[in-house]
Amino acid sequence: MKKLFFFIPVIFLIFATTFTKNSTKKLDKKIFDANENLRAMHEKYELVMLEYSYLTSPKKLMEYQKKYFDNELLESDIKNLNWIEKKNEEIIIKKILSNNE
């Protein structure tokens, strides 16, 4: 009888430990996945904010030009810009804006 009173709690503790260990593994995996997703989202957020800060307005771009490039960059009229395509060793030059725009 003493063996039975000793054996039942031991078996119960073994099952409780196994259940707790498996639950902890599942929680650790969920936490790791959430942290990885958060890290990836944070990187995307930083890239979007960088893009936003550089492309918010032409005025801001002009400020960056003056600050970082001095007189290296020049303004150009979009009507003077062309597309250059190379097809089968033939170079084709097209206007970005056509006359009817």
TL;DR of this structure?
This protein has a domain at 2-69.
Description:
With 101 residues, the protein is mainly α. It has a domain at 2-69. 64% of the residues lie in helices and 12% in strands. It is built from two helices and two strands. The chain has helices at 2-54, 58-69, and strands at 82-87, 90-95. It has a two-stranded antiparallel ribbon with strand order 1-2. A hairpin with a 2-residue loop joins strand 1 and strand 2. The longest helix has 53 residues, at 2-54. The termini are far apart. The model has no long low-confidence stretch (mean pLDDT 84).
Secondary structure elements and pairings:
Layout: H1 2-54, H2 58-69, E1 82-87, E2 90-95
Which terms summarize this structure?
single chain; mainly alpha
Which H/E pattern describes the elements? HHEE
If you compute it from the alpha carbons, what radius of gyration comes out, rounded to the nearest whole angstrom?
33 Å
Number of strand segments: 2
Q: Report the biggest beta sheet as strand number plus sense, adding barrel if it closes.
A: 2 strands, antiparallel
Global structural class: mainly alpha
Which residues sit in consecutive blocks of at least 5 with pLDDT less than 50?
A: none
Strand-residue fraction? 5-15%
The mean pLDDT is 84
